[in-house]
Amino acid sequence: MADDTSAAAGTSTETGAGTGSNLRTTKPGTKRLFLTVSVLISFLLGAPFLLKSTEIHRSPLPSAAISSLSDHLHSNPPSFPCHFQAIFLSPFKPSDSSLSLSVAERIRAQLSAQSCGNCNFTVSVTVDSGSSCRDEGDAASAACLWECGGGGLVDAIEGRDDQGIDELLLSAVNERTGGCAGRVYSVFVMEGRDERVVIGKHRHAWMVLKDLDDSTSVVSMIGTVFGDYFMRGGVEKGEYIPVGSDGNVVLSFSLLNSNPSDWIYDWDFQRTGEVLLAPVLEALAPVANITMESQVLYHAPKSSISYWDEKLEAYVVNTRDLPFFVNSNEWHLDTSLSASGRSKVLQFVVYVPSASECPLYIRTPEGEMSKTNAFISPMWGGVAIWNPPGCSMQSQGIHIVRDVLPPQELEKIIEIFIGQLRLLFGLNSNYVEPSPIFKVLASEKGFTNWELDLLYRQHTCFNLLSSLSTLQSLSTLVESLPRMIVMDEIGKQVELSLEAANLAERNISLGINNASALSSIRARALAEDAFFHPSIMSISYSSMEHYFAIYMPFFAPVSLHVLLAAVKEVKRYFAERSKYLTFRASKLKSS
Amino acid sequence: MASHTFLSLLLFYLYSFHLLRPIYCSFGSNGFETTSVPKEEEFSEELLLKPLPDYKVLAHFHFTSTSPPSSSNGKHHHLFPKSIAQLVKKYKIRELELSFTQGRWNYDRWGASDPLSTANGKPPGVELWALFDIPTKEEIDATWRNLTHSLSGLFCASINFLESSTSYSAPLWGFLPNNGDLRYGALPREAVCTENLTPWLKLLPCRDKAGIASLLDRPSIYRGHYHSQRLKLRSDGLNGIVIEQTLSVVLQPIDRTSWSMHQLFKKSLTGKCALAKSSKVFLEIEGNLVSQNENILELVGEADMVTNDQRDHSTIYQYNVERYSEHEALDIRVNWKKLLQVSFLQAPLHASRFLMGSGNERGSIAISLQSARNSTKGLYDNSKNCFTRVVIFQVVPWYVKVYYHTLRIYVDGAIRDAKDVVEKINVAPSEDKVSPGTLEMMLQFPCGMMSAALTLDFDKGFLHIDEYPPDANQGFDIPSALVSFPDFISRRIYPDSISSPLLQSYKGRNIVKSYTEVLLVPLTTPDFSMPYNVITFTCTVLALYFGSMVNVLRRRVSEEERLAKSKDKRKPGLIPLLISKISNKVRGIKEDSANQSQSSQPILGPKVVFKVVLIALIAVLGHYIFNSS
């Protein structure tokens, strides 16, 4: 208060002193200076609060954790613990001491690419030939080791066919490695007259060799069985597994009549198809929840051109024209309404050509007819061409042929479709054996147990990788759009998904298969839920321009005033002070 | 013998009397009176051509697909569209009708009480109603929402706008008697075009590649005066799923007195769809031409069968498409020898609806009913005990706030007490931004009445700025009201020799009904730049206030005055100098060059240059900062 009065006195004396002169008798007042500067400071202090209050709500995403996990998975793909065991049922003297190590080396040598879904394997070798029993190598647990006493197997095998041997060995495996029957892959090696290597329908194979003396070739064969079949299924990469993110797959079967004015074929898919496909669906149940549906469509011509081939005496479509075969304008295959959410629809199409292009075959680049007369399109489905009997006779009668696809023909087509399904899932439709003595037993379920294991591993791995790539794209998207609203729900889903992914990764390395598959599915579903959240596209309506348009009319003039006032007042204060100081100096001088 | 004849006559009389008596019947049984359940999926296609009194031609395409009841419904199909079966299964639909209409059915000229017009006259835009087989109300609402989205995807239309609870209603008896499991919604402004027709055709096994549907030449059918495309489905455990797909087009032939199918559609019918169980074309002429035996009409093309309906309202000529091929296309040609004077069956009352009042604040809706006596003279007498019942069903969006207590009913120009006229009323008032207002009203008018009118006052509501549609100034549509006459049943019975799902559907008891016009209500539309204007204006005022306050607190008035005086003595400032210069230039007074050179000195001074550079620097910096962010 006292300061105020003195300042007031100061101003009153100013008038007396006069600004025009270079002298000032009183100290310049600081009231106005204080006022303008405090307004300016309060504005400056208020600015962060304003920015904070007009901020767009963005839930923080753990982008660092996402990228670190994804880097980790890319450099070090998750591998599942598996145990391989080779059992010699005939006397065998290995040349070098550590047979299991050389087998492992052999497998590792073939394991070139760091692909997803590989095994982090352990190998053990047992020689179990009646009297002698010797274990070697490392097993995950003692229960997984082959329990000796299977000497009688060699005699039991004698005289049985492959199917019989397969069942016999299955029971032997279950009996002797009861502890971890589902997780051990076995190869039985024995001496015999007719050489062959058979890979069974379950998780074991057997080799009958003339002599076991050449241990290098025996080891290389064992390595091939383990590495190429049990671990990778003869597939190089199986990244695409056509399963929807909710674990559902709809198989949509369509019978397409190219031109119903020539002939109309119907089918009894419900009776034949469902019966034939039911075991396949059952077998695939751990990987995907599959449903089926069928329809018959008419007036659905293909869109690629076929022409008459004199040599084959048929109309042919070249393989290079196959990408244009599917006529998306006329084939109203429809995505299924029953396929809820993000499930995947795989189309399987039986194409019945019209009279003007019958019989129709696919010609391979070598100029031969395709054996199956069918092709697949990855992630979409498969097409099989079925030529009606007697269509080459050109019997263009007046009466339209209305017929039902014969059940045996339908069975053949469905067999083709099962092969295509295997291809779509990344397995070979039939194995090309490295040597003539190799044989792979096919399961009546379409998928053997070890193939299912493989799919299961790959599916888990694929889910994990795809969830991370989804999360990563989401976080880059969010970072690239600074005015995008990110709901709390999205943040939560991302966090949960990341958590599930971490859990899946840990469970994989621990070898808890069911839990890892479940959490990997959960991670992928949550990641996609977050990415396809309906609010994700609602980029804030208040863009940067909008923001300026609202606040400029107030803050531009006001800040101009405040700044100018502060600058003027500061300038004046210093000017007046220098006057006062000169006055004081002169006074001192004069005194 | 005589008594026998008398007895049969009496029976017939009783029977016909029974027909005219008020009958409560469900619309649901319309046209689906299939006697035997087929074992297989079936498809049939039909086309009915009918000359209209104003020399236009109605072409009514009718496709029926049936799927027997089976556990595999929705999974395995041969002819029946899989998507529809899945729709029925997923949403537990008992009945559904979806119509896309362009133009308005002209009830005065094209008929109002024959089965064709009562079943096919539809309100403009999209109308969707569905009956669900679901117990609880909440579940029905949720299913309805999902259904609108599915249909919207299936038919390439904005049916999903019916999702919000403000756009659909649940009438109890005004539209169709039900137990609260019916939902009704209409989009009057939806434009209908080929993009809706293509998915509709996709449901047919032959699409438009063969058969009757191949006549659908897009330019010809969309040139018509009325275009209505419908999908009606019904599903129950007994008959399975039945879909009726109809397309009604009113076309104008070039020559009034003579037209042919080829002229109308610019395409010829060369054969049936190979998958159709039956494929027929009918030509229906109102009036009993067979018995009249008058030479007013010449048909080119021999009909397979000519019959009349039981009460001789019309004559039907039947053509079986199977007989025709590419070499001999079916082309029906009609030559009128004498211009037709057909009096069409009118509805008992002609309904129309209009808006009254002016301004953007309030108005009233009026529904006027005019008696169409001449056509139904026989039904009326002036006795006091005779009444005609009329049911009005109207849905009004929430922003048109109807005051239902202001209902006034005029009969023959005189106001009548609502109690005397209204037999039954059900009002569901609108709730702001939640639900539309629904009015269901059953009225009883004396038979001798000439005209009646109903008025309802309303206030126009205000919408939030982001609730306005893109073209807000066009106005808002109130969907058509439905006026039905439960005492009047349009039905035609044809001899059993014709087996046709189309004519079969006419046997059903269709209640005579007509849709009124769509109303266009202009609402007060704000200036959509208003928020910005308000913001800038307020901010400017605030900035002015703030600036002056800062100045009042800061400035030393006396000191500045003194300064200004002393400055006046010395040298005028830069800006006053410039102002005086400009004003001098404007006045045309030339200053001497010496003065000019003197005054130009400070403009190019180092201080000014520095200031300009500083401002440019700030601008560049600002630009850089904003771009980098």
Automatic annotation (TrEMBL), chain A:
Keywords: Endoplasmic reticulum, Glycoprotein, GPI-anchor biosynthesis, Membrane, Transmembrane, Transmembrane helix. Its main location: endoplasmic reticulum. One of its GO terms (cellular component) is GPI-anchor transamidase complex. The chain crosses the membrane at residues 33-51, 547-567. It is found in: Endoplasmic reticulum membrane. Residues 1-25 are annotated as: Disordered. This is GPI transamidase component PIG-S. It comes from Rhynchospora pubera. The lineage of its organism: Eukaryota, Viridiplantae, Streptophyta, Embryophyta, Tracheophyta.
From TrEMBL, chain B:
It holds the Pfam family Gpi16. GO terms for biological process: attachment of GPI anchor to protein. InterPro entries: PIG-T (IPR007245). GO terms for cellular component: GPI-anchor transamidase complex. Keywords: Membrane, Signal, Transmembrane, Transmembrane helix. It comes from the Eukaryota. The chain crosses the membrane at residues 532-553, 608-626. Residues 1-25 form the signal peptide. PANTHER family: GPI TRANSAMIDASE COMPONENT PIG-T (PTHR12959:SF11), GPI TRANSAMIDASE COMPONENT PIG-T-RELATED (PTHR12959). This is GPI transamidase component PIG-T.
